[in-house]
Amino acid sequence: MLSVVAAAGLAVSACSSLPDTRQAVSGSYACGQLDIAVSGSEDSDLISVDYLDRRVLLKPEESASGDLYVAPGDDQTRFWSKGEKATLTIRGQTYPECLQPGDLEMPFEARGNEPFWHATLEQDELLLTRPFEEQGTRRVPVELKTANRHGREFVATLDDVPIALTVARQLCQDSMSGAQYPAQVRLTVGNDEYTGCGGDRLRLFRGAVWVVEDLAGTGIIDRSRITIEFLEDNRLAGRASCNRYTGTYQLRGDGVAIGPLAPTRMACAPALMNQEDRFLRLLGEVTSVRIGQQGELLLSTPDGETMRAFQSDHDSP
Fold it and tell me: Element (H or E) spanning 139, and its range?
């Protein structure tokens, strides 16, 4: 998956300091659907952030905690690292929390069905509703047992019964609602195993520029461009063919509600305007959003009309 940040408005305390460039920040991160590579060296105080077909160079800045880097002359492009996690902003757009391979956002929530169970990881604690649990949700200390690029395994003990929660970063579909999640989860209670899904659903859609290649059975006019971006604060934006547009979205159960769409008002050739009108009409009627078997974005209306989009491999301002 393609899968970048933000630390706007960081308070700088009197004891804040510049990052120690002798311990250069480096590593790979997944910021939702945006993959980035961060590298530094002992010979320079600059770091580079590579994403899609772009590279940005950032210099260290004072911060109250962690390591903050900002693009020279552009304080709306910044990378703020805190261990395995980081935040990234590019030209004022903040991406989902950036995680190193296998890491989890916190709190991390998971659930399963038949029988029902629910778990929430909060750093060193596990809030667990076991299958057939009569005492409701229990809070117990939890330890990280295994950590690798594929996921994490946590262990705990409840009522003298060993508990294990294993998380793998693979697409998962809820067996009842049909909703998709970014992680497959296995809960082990004693000798019994239960499966389920977990993670923040928005990470499946945010961080990518989705380029529409099919409008409910019809292709796209050559050299035209239709895009969809799921942004922070439930904002939607992109290019509709001729004009750019903005709107809102809200994930609901296994579906999505898309709010009023507001395009700009530039005029183009009639064919482009017709394509734009059709796209905006379909997008406004979409009630289902999913990730397909090839990693494509599938947006469907109640009438069964489906738009298909793939992630762009280059950055577009």
Answer: strand 138-141
Nearest CA among 153, 251, 154, 246 for reference residue 204? 251
Check whether 217 has a pLDDT greater than 70.
yes
Long-range contacts, 236-245 (Cβ 8 Å, 24+)? 236/261, 238/209, 238/210, 240/276, 240/279, 240/280, 241/268, 241/272, 241/273, 241/275, 241/276, 241/279, 242/266, 242/267, 242/268, 242/272, 242/273, 242/276, 243/268, 243/276, 245/280
Contact 245, 237 (CB under 8 A): yes
Band of the pLDDT at 193, cuts 50, 70, 90?
very high
Tell me the one-letter amino acid at 67.
D
Q: Which domains does the chain have, with CATH numbers?
A: 21-99 (2.40.128.200), 108-199 (2.40.128), 209-311 (2.40.128.270)
pLDDT at position 92 is 94
Q: In the beta sheet, which residues pair with residue 91?
A: none
pLDDT tens-place string over residues 156-181: 999 999 999 999 999 999 999 999 99
Evaluate whether 220 touches 47 at the Cβ level (below 8 Å): no
Report residue 86's pLDDT band, with 50, 70 and 90 as the boundaries.
very high
User: What is the maximum span of the chain, computed from C-alpha positions, in angstroms?
Assistant: 71
Which residues fall within 8 angstroms of residue 263, CB to CB, at 6 or more apart? 240, 243, 244, 245, 276, 280
Mean pLDDT in residue range 110-138: 94
Q: What are the residues whose beta carbons fall under 8 Å from the beta carbon of 217, sequence distance 6 or more? A: 305
